[in-house]
Structures are given as structure tokens and as C-alpha cells.
Amino acid sequence: MVHWTEEERCTISTLWDKIDTEEVGHQALTRSHLVVYPWTQRYFSTFGNLSKPAAIAGNPKVRAHGKRVIVALGDAIKNLDNVKATYAKLSELHSEKLHVDPENFRLLGEALIIVLAGQFGAAFTPAVQATWQKLLSVVISALSSKYH
Amino acid sequence: MPLTQVDKNHVKSIWSKASGKAEELGAQALGRMLQAFPNTRTYFSHYSDMSVKSSQVHVHGKKIIDAITEAVNHIDDISGAMSELSTLHAHTLRVDPANFKVLSHNILVVLALYFPADFTPEVHLSCDKFLSCVSYALAEKYR
Asked: Family, per the entry (chain B) (predicted)?
């Protein structure tokens, strides 16, 4: 089981309360998956026009999906002491139905940290970054747990 | 994944701002890496303070940014620009090259933090490619 200090819990929820799930999700998904690592578009063949950064940024399916991802992150944050169980079904979904390479979770996680840094600036201190990196590594591990 | 002319322009543009704050950005990138990725601390066990505020981290962070500035200034021959540093990392420091990716991530975080308006997704892409090239060049002499 992952151990969280009171300070870490507080750090996570303080930043979470300030996050606009749709905007952050959109930025992270656009940046990572679709612009910086264009090969990740392989999972979004039904999303329509992803041909250029501007098309990606304006795509409503991308926006909706980005929001869904961050809302799911909220579930992990509400269940910090049991992220693995919370994500069991999601893990199965990504493995069995969506066939997503778990490397993508890492890429999206990196992009999310970069988006948060850009949005929160100096408030995204080294300590806040370290706590959120830990959160994302727990999330990524949980999402990868049902792969076989 | 070679750098296009657009990539080179993006990198030179954002780095012209970064190079002027070498010590601050370097300390931030290195300090954040050491704080968020504890495995990397193994290479700095001789530091008395590994935080962003540490003078040792400041000195070393500046060295890193200055070295990357060299790579930017020789962007058509990153391999040549990094040659001596590659020898150093390969034979003396023996840093596992996997760590270059970790530091690169933290450099990107710092660029986003300090230059949010300039660090667009397209610039992010170019910087990510550029830092991959630098990392590759740094690992060239390893074996």
C-alpha cells in the first residue's frame, strides 16, 4: 500500500481544487498525445481531424476525452489509499478493450506535469511537483496493473 | 528523429531567453529532478544539500544549462559539441543514460514554468526532440 503524508494529501487536494478539469485535460491530451508524440494518435482514429495542431486543439472529441481523463484522475485523488482497486476496471478496459501501450500513461503523465507547471508557475514548487509526480506514478502503476 | 529547420528555430528562440537565466533555470531543473526522482540522488551523494536553494545545485545547474547553450549554438553538430562531455559522462561520471530523459523532462517543466506563453505545444515538441538529440550525443561514447 502507498503511504501518503498529511502534507502530501494536502498538497494534492489544494492543487486539485484549482484545476479546471476540461482545460487541463484538453491541454495535456493535445500537447502530449497529439502534438509532441504524434504516433499516439493511433488510439484516436475515430476522432476525426487530427492533421495539424490547430485541428487537434479545436477538435471537440479531443476536448471531451481530455476532460474524461482528468475526471478519472479525480477518482484516484478521492481514493488515495486504494488507487489500485479504484482503477481495476479502468486498467482492464485499457488492456483488454482499448489495447493501449502503458508507455502512453507515462507520456500523458509527463505532459500533465508540464501543463500544470505552465498554468501555476511559481506556485508549482519543487515540493508540489514531487508530490504530483508521486501521485501520477501511483496512478500509472494502478492503470497498468491488470495488463497480462 | 532529426531536427527540422522549424525545430531549430523554435529551440533557438526559446533558448535565447533561457540562456540569460542559466543559473536559476539550471538550479530549478536539477533541484526538481533530485526532489521528485529520488533515484537520481545517487549521483549526488557528495552534496550536503540537494534542494533547489543549494549553492552546489546552483553551480552545477548553471553548468548544465551552459552546456545545453553550447549545443544550441552548434545545433547542426550537436554530436561534436557534446563530444568532450560525452567522454566525461561515459568514463568518469558513468551516469546511466536513462537519467538524461529524467533531467530533460525537468528542463521542459522549467521552460513551461518560466516561459508559459512561449512554450506552446509546437515549441514543446521541438525542445523535446532537441533534448533527445543532446541526450543521444551525450551517450555516444559510452560503449
From this structure: Belongs to the globin family.
Contact A110 B124 (CB under 8 A): no
- Inspect the interface and report whether the beta carbons of A117 and B121 lie closer than 8 Å: no
Distance from CA of A43 to the nearest CA of B (A): 19
Q: Cα(A112)–Cα(A27) distance, rounded to whole angstroms?
A: 8
pLDDT per position as a tens digit, B82-116: 999 999 999 999 999 999 999 999 999 999 999 99
Q: How far apart are CA A132 and CA A114, in angstroms?
A: 11
DSSP string, A72-101: HHHHHHHTGGGHHHHTHHHHHIIIIIS---
Least Cα distance to A16 among A103, A82, A62, A79 occurs for A79
pLDDT tens readout for residues A59-88: 899 999 999 999 999 999 999 999 999 999
